Amino acid sequence: MNSYGPPLHLAAVSGHLEKFQIEIKNPANNLGEPPPHSTAINGHLGKSQVEKTNDNYSKPPLHLAADSGQYSVSKYTSIKTLTLNVSGLKSYGRIDQVRNLLIKHKIDVAVLTETEISHDMAKTFNIDGYKVFCPPHFTTGPRGKEAGVITLVAKDVAIYAIERPDLNNKVDTIPTVWIQLKNIKAGLNCIIGGVYRRNRKSTDEVKKEFLQLQQQLLGAAQSNKTVLVLGDINIDHNNPEHKLAKEAKDLLAIVEAANMRHLPNKVPTWKSHGFHRICKCSSRVCGCQRHQLTSCIDNAYVSLEAKASLRVLDETMTDHYPLLINLQTNRVVKTKLKSIWFRDIAQMSALDFENALGLQDWSSIYESNDPNDIHRTILSNVNSSLDKLAPFKEIKIRKDKPKLSLRKDTLAAMEARNNARKSGNKDLYKLLRNKVTKMVKRDEIQGVLNRLGKNPGPKNSWKEAKAYLGSARGDALPETTTNEDPQKTAEHQNEYFISKILKLAESTTSSNTGPLPTSTDTSTSTGTTKVKMQPWPSDFKGSPENNHGETPLHSAAISGHLEKSQMENMKPENNHGQTPLHSAATSGTFEFNFVNASKITKIISNLKNTKALGVDNIATEVWKKGKITLSGPIARLCNVSMATGIVPDLFKKAIVHPVYKGHGKDPRDPASYRPVAILPALSKILENVVRDSLLSWFKQKNFLPESQYGFRPDKSVAMALTVAQTDWINAKARNELVGIMAFDLSSAFDTLDHSLLLRKLESANIKGIPLKWFQSYLSDRSQRVLWNSIISKYLPLNKGVPQGSILGPILFLVMIHDMPKCLTRNTESTSSKVVGYADDTTVYVKAKNPEHLRQELQALGQIMVDYCKENGLVLNGQKTQLLTSARKEIEININDDIVKSNTTISLLGLEYDKNFSTAPYLRKLAREANTRAALIRRLSFGMPNCLLRPFANGLLMGKILAAAPAAIPIRIDPNDKPYLAGILDEIDKAIRATARTITRTKLTDKVRSEVTLLKAGLKSLTEAVSVTMATLVWKARKDMDTLGFIFEKKPSIRDNRSKYSEKLCQPVPGHPELTSNKMAQIWNNLQLNNAKSIADVRASALEWYRTNFQN
């Protein structure tokens, strides 16, 4: 809501607030206001009786009220600042030491001096949860190429940080960083300066340095803001015998002139590494005792009126000790404790919910033919049942704390502990306090296990690991970005997302926006389309094919029906081995496959559980618990929608959650956030039904090209890359040159033109009511942004396919289904092929000489540019990659951008070199595996073994096996010569080291690695990859996928068990880097043709590994 006061507060200030009683039958009205919110805004709040409404908003009752400012406590707080001389950030392990120090003390602003890194390196320096500010780059200074000081600001504070270059001098005599923390609404307005003054011997240099400090301090003081200056000044104000004692007095005079004061400190901040004599003996060699030298050369200065405290931390990593300064500010910070309302769906019994749904009136659903009316009735009945079994409850949460579900015995023990404290029984209180601590730790571990069990992937494992280590700071959205109004921030972010799409769409103008070449007569009563035949092209002179490789009759055939009388003596075949007349005879128009309750039940069961709610505020878990009763009404909704060509209005409204991209991006910049759209779970059920019908039709008509591997059943990234790599190395074995181009489409899904997409759907014979349904699906869509708890207004979406939808990826494949045909060419000197995975398109060319290769690559690049312009796609020439096997560098022009051939190319997460091996990717994988193994070891110091296993499988094995069949050429035969053995051994060592971490064993214990792996629940690299590779090749041969056709069969041989053993030939023998050769070996050695299921394949792979590699 636009008002920021909570409803009860508004009621209090607008009139007398008396006791009230509220009876809630339905949580929210059409505007998303709970009943007490509405009455509170209108004035006095009294007894409220609220009638039922069918249209709910995405937030629970009073959620908006709680989120709009009703926090528990307001208080004054301080900015935690720290300064430390790091003696070079390049030192081994220094960055990790700094990170741990900042996380441990929850530092807001850190000034690091003596960094010994360049300005370029300082700009790219990154510590999780912090933003880096660097000094200006002045080349006229004594050490202009080095950034002597950098300032790190926590990301939740960095949104208020502004650089102040006006306070720096034109000559970098002393490297300084000046920032201002400004948020007037929160009462935060101060300037922080980081200083590093090197220890110089020249008197003239010292004078220049103090002149610079004087100018900067006076300039900061004139801003009338609280000023804090800290860093390594190399001056000791406590030692009157210091060599710069006079300069120290002069500096204090400058500080006083700037209305500032020195924060006193008697504890040394520097201690020498070695021992030195302090006696005044004339002889260099004497027996006097030697001591470590100490000094207070790190200092802090603050404004006179500011309240600040300083202490030296006894946690040194260099010869300097950190200084921690608490600068008290006037900003009022609301605690994170908030009230929210939610339904406890997990505690609701499925049987009770089914019974409650059975008592509702469903008769109107089967009497109505309006999808919107049916949808409203379903929502009303579901919400009514939920109000009885899972009413909204108010809870207090802290957003900065990880979610923790406590068991009932833990809650009972906590209550007993509190009672003991109130009674004054100290012994009993201590006993119960220790007991509660252990029980909370138990529940915390169980909560992590439950979350990892539901989502065991690497993404969720990283999230849990960061939360456990306390390094997830800054992940939450800030309160505001470029302005100080949360509501305006939400509106601005939504406008940015929409405007970005419109700007990209405007950057390309499609010339293919006219009507389809066929004229149609549509009958609304039957929903069928009669297509009139088009005349022969005027330039047709008997040539069998047009520019797309189609005969004229084939073009006519796929545009509509051909009469049988026209199907005489026509022989030219299309790419699928069918004559045009055959295609015409078997063609027809697309029709939806209507569904029954059993089909809907299966779809609901396969939905992914997610806590993100759409505009209907109903979680996926609700539909699953009531699927037996709800499957019939939902089937009716789907069938009526498909029969009428109308998509319910609420299905076309999305709530967008901005997700911070990280990697040092400015949290105040709207471009630093990625939109994640949430649609109602019920809409995904309808989209699943339509998708199944659509894919069945495309498979029947061979509409989608075989070279497209994205979002299709039984196809994967590994299949796409394996097929392409086999073709590349096969060409190289024939002494042909190969050139590979990887194109990048900017926001491809978001910029699709709806009119062009509908035309391409019509070209697939999707007409009449089905085409009307897709037009309804794409039109009148809108989105709003949820920024923390603030919701923006709806803005229309006129471009692209819906993000987060089931049909979106399939519709994108329809849009680019003719791209491979345009890019596939065969001439006497060259040939080209395409491999696509959704919007990632890779074209590779085979040629006999470098010049022919360059010409063909340039021609295909221009074809791709023209295709994108005609289809409203945005091709990013700057991100286009090029790799060739030619010795000389080749360069081509893409969209006025020069693209030069590189030594490596990145495709779908893998990296290939000029020999088309995955060695570059494997080297990076080895480093990443060692990093993750070290992280798991770090986790092991405070985590039980039961938690380490899922972390190891998610973080380490998940990364290694992500594309293992296409990337890791393991040894299949123990006698084979190993390929890239050193790199693969590094990865295997990381796995075995993690197994020792989990089992708490050491190398000196001399325990066999097989035993350690078995106890840890992990597999060795060869075992894990062989199982994955065997599964992939078995599925490919079973489904006769494209991958299956790269293998040639050997004659079947009857073995002693009276079974036929089908053998596969290696596609390109003699190339150990080719993973398809390994797949053929896997098939032959494991005799996978006899496997009946994936379980049989895995069992065979495990038995084969133990026989050949463990014995």
Walk me through the structure.
This protein is of the alpha+beta class. 40% of the residues lie in helices and 18% in strands. The chain has a 6-stranded mixed beta sheet. The chain has a 6-stranded mixed beta sheet with strand order 7-8-9-10-16-11, with helices on one face. Strands 23, 24, 26, 27 and 28 form a 5-stranded mixed beta sheet that branches. Mean pLDDT is 78; it is low at 1-76, 139-143, 510-586 and 1050-1060. The chain starts with 6 loop residues before the first helix and ends with a helix.
Short description:
With 1111 residues, the protein is of the alpha+beta class. Helices cover 40% and strands 18% of the residues.
Write the layout of secondary structure elements.
Layout: H1 7-14, E1 22-23, H2 35-42, E2 48-49, H3 63-67, E3 74-85, H4 94-105, E4 109-118, H5 119-124, E5 130-133, E6 146-154, H6 155-158, E7 161-163, E8 176-183, E9 188-196, H7 203-221, E10 226-232, H8 245-257, E11 260-262, E12 270-271, E13 276-277, E14 290-291, E15 294-295, E16 298-303, E17 308-312, E18 323-334, E19 337-343, H9 350-358, H10 363-367, H11 371-389, E20 392-398, H12 408-423, H13 426-454, H14 458-469, H15 486-506, E21 520-522, E22 529-531, H16 552-559, H17 580-586, H18 597-605, H19 620-625, H20 627-644, E23 653-660, E24 673-678, H21 681-701, H22 717-733, E25 737-743, H23 754-763, H24 769-778, E26 781-787, E27 790-791, E28 795-797, H25 807-815, H26 819-823, E29 830-837, E30 840-847, H27 850-870, E31 881-884, E32 891-894, E33 897-900, E34 904-907, E35 910-913, H28 919-940, H29 945-960, H30 964-967, H31 981-999, H32 1009-1016, H33 1021-1038, E36 1048-1054, E37 1060-1065, H34 1075-1086, H35 1094-1110
Parallel strand pairs: 1-2, 3-4, 9-10, 23-26
Antiparallel strand pairs: 3-18, 4-6, 5-6, 7-8, 8-9, 10-16, 11-16, 12-15, 13-14, 17-18, 19-20, 21-22, 23-24, 25-30, 25-31, 26-27, 26-28, 29-30, 32-33, 34-35, 36-37
